Amino acid sequence: MNQPTKIMAIITTKQEKIKGGGVPVFVVEHRESLQNISAILERTLDASAHEVDVDTMIIVAH
Fold first, then answer.
1. How many Cβ atoms from other residues are within 10 Å of residue 58's Cβ?
2. Residue 60: exposed, middle, or buried by beta-carbon count in 10 A (0-12, 13-18, 19+)?
3. Terminal-residue alpha carbon distance, the chain
4. What is the pLDDT of residues 3-59, one digit of tens each?
């Protein structure tokens, strides 16, 4: 049976762009940190990182 796709985390440099809740949100200061944290979470959660825009990444479990 296939499990549904689920957003596991959000990483952003612009906290004001994120509304709602339900998943952990990681706020970082620089784009380099955005990429680094995304890569770490991707490996740790056995999930995929996807760029929403230049300021925001999501970690998705498929």
1. 19
2. middle
3. 12
4. 789 999 999 999 999 987 799 999 999 999 999 999 999 999 999 999 999 999 999
